[in-house]
């Protein structure tokens, strides 16, 4: 049995620190439905795109400015430092119906979890080792989280609400009972948190929501203004970052060192993805940023699998990531599906521990995206 354990415990020394407004925003708009165009002047909070899915949340500019570039991937806004901002939406006066659900979507919230269920699980564990956003929000934003919970409950109407937190953590939320979970990665992933609380895998009577989502919903409930920032752990502190802020702006502001061939990663050490350019903008849901110095790890590459089996042993679901990767290499996505692709909850442990440094998680994500695209076309 493997003894390696990845702790989710963190030390919180400060509150959330603001990243100052950048001069330019780069918003990723690939696959979104555009609601603005080049040359348009935007007020802070104005909608720039809608999500193509029925339940996805819209995207807004956090700062006022002019749209100076639009292509398939990105939209660039030159910020003007202006005060012009959108008017708040009167969320408080709305009952739990279609109007409120639509307003939440228009203000940036994905509403897929907002339908009836017996059990509501609030995932209050830090998502990955070295990332402390969940604890930071539970510690410093309790009232906003409780406002968010009240609003969420209007739709879910749960019989039982459970806040899952790390063993030894002192956090509580009004309107929920607390259950502790061993703070070892990947226990923080939704599927495992739900299993720890209910004892079942993927129970149909249960909804799960993260404290980050509750925080955004709570903020909207209180202000009526759209979601325009994310909270990220960067070199041990947590920062409030306007969406679309270029990575370069954060790195310069915090005086971080990035040398040629270093990798800059958005997310955490297991599930994060290296950015292709420092001009890339921060996205919804990004919760971490860190630099992997060149030479500190062997590079991830398409090396041959040596059939050591480590990926299977590290996988909490004993999925054969090696076999799935082989099918994906030959574009046999339906065979990858037959071998447990959809049971994978993308913890990244297989890839992290692959001795050949194969990009197993990327293969898995690629296969899921290909199958989804085929399904949408069919
Ligand atoms: S990412 Fe890898 S280790 Fe994690 S569940 Fe999927 S196959 Fe298993
Ligand atoms: S850990 Fe890597 S090299 Fe070993 S079996 Fe899995 S894919 Fe192959």
UniProtKB/TrEMBL annotation:
In alphabetical order, the GO MF annotations are: 4 iron, 4 sulfur cluster binding; electron transfer activity; metal ion binding
- What are the record keywords, sorted? Iron, Iron-sulfur, Metal-binding
4Fe-4S ferredoxin-type domain residues: 296-324
Report the GO terms under cellular component. Answer: membrane
Top-level taxon of the source organism: Bacteria
Q: What is this protein called?
A: 4Fe-4S ferredoxin iron-sulfur binding domain-containing protein
- Organism (species): Desulfocurvibacter africanus subsp. africanus str. Walvis Bay
């Amino acid at each position: 049995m493997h003894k390696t354990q990845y702790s989710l415990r963190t030390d919180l020394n400060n509150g959330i620190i603001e990243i100052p407004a950048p001069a330019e925003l780069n918003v990723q708009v690939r696959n979104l439905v555009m609601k603005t165009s080049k040359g348009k002047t935007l007020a802070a909070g104005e909608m720039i795109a809608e999500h193509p899915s029925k339940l996805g949340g819209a995207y807004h500019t956090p700062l006022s400015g002019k749209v100076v570039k639009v292509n398939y991937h990105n939209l660039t806004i030159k910020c003007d430092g202006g005060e012009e901002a959108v008017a708040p939406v009167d969320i408080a006066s709305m009952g739990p119906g279609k109007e409120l659900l639509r307003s939440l979507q228009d203000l940036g919230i994905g509403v897929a979890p907002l339908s009836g269920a017996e059990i509501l699980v609030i995932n209050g564990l830090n998502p990955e080792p070295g990332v402390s956003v969940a604890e930071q929000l539970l510690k410093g934003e309790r009232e906003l989280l409780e406002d968010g919970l009240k609003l969420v409950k209007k739709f879910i109407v749960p019989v039982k609400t459970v806040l899952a937190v790390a063993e030894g953590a002192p956090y509580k939320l009004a309107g929920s009972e607390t259950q502790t979970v061993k703070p070892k990665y990947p226990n923080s992933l939704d599927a495992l948190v739900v299993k720890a609380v209910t004892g079942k895998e993927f129970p149909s009577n249960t909804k799960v929501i993260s404290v980050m989502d509750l925080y955004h919903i709570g903020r909207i409930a209180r202000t009526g203004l759209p979601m325009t920032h994310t909270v990220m752990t960067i070199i041990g502190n947590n920062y409030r970052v306007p969406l679309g802020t270029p990575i370069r702006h954060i790195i310069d502001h915090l005086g971080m060192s990035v040398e040629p061939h270093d990798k800059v990663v958005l997310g955490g050490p297991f599930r994060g993805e290296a950015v292709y350019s420092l001009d890339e903008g921060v996205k919804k849901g990004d919760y971490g940023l860190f630099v992997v110095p060149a030479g500190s790890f062997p590079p991830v590459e398409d090396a041959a699998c040596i059939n050591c089996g480590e990926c299977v042993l590290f996988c909490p679901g004993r999925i054969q990531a090696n076999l799935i990767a082989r099918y994906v290499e030959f574009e046999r996505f339906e065979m990858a599906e037959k071998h447990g692709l959809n049971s994978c909850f993308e913890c990244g442990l297989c890839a992290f521990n692959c001795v050949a440094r194969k990009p197993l998680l990327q293969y898995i994500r690629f296969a899921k995206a290909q199958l989804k695209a085929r399904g949408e076309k069919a």
